[in-house]
């Protein structure tokens, strides 16, 4: 089941990059602006 959500999230990252920051802000009640660079090391698991 997790693969479905992983695939959907990957699609959003690739096709809707401008929406990622607003979605994260909405889900986690944050106020990120997108000004800082995001390191890929954060997502390495």
The percentage of residues in β strands lies in under 5%
How many domain regions? Answer: 1
Task: Give, in order, the helices and strands.
Answer: HH
What spatial form do the alpha-carbon principal axes imply? globular
In which range does the helix fraction lie?
55-70%
Radius of gyration: 12 Å
User: What's the total number of strands?
Assistant: 0
Biggest sheet, open or closed, and with what strands and sense?
Answer: none
Question: Whole-number average pLDDT?
Answer: 78
Distance between the termini: 19 Å
Class by helix and strand content? mainly alpha
In DSSP terms (H or I, runs of 4 or more residues), the helix count works out at 2
- Which spans have pLDDT < 50 for at least 5 consecutive residues? none
Produce a short descriptive summary:
The protein is mainly α and 45 residues long. The protein has helices at residues 2-15, 17-28.
What's the helix and strand layout?
Elements (H helix, E strand, L loop, with lengths): L1 H14 L1 H12 L17
Describe the structure.
- The protein has 45 residues and is mainly alpha-helical.
- The protein has one domain (2-43).
- The chain is built from 2 helices and no strands.
- The relative contact order is 0.10.
For the structure shown, list the relevant keywords:
45 residues; 0% strand; 2 helices
């Amino acid at each position: 089941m997790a693969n479905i959500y992983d695939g959907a999230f990957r699609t959003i990252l690739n096709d809707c990059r401008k929406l990622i920051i607003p979605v994260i802000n909405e889900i986690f009640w944050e106020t990120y602006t997108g000004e800082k660079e995001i390191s890929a090391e954060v997502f390495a698991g």
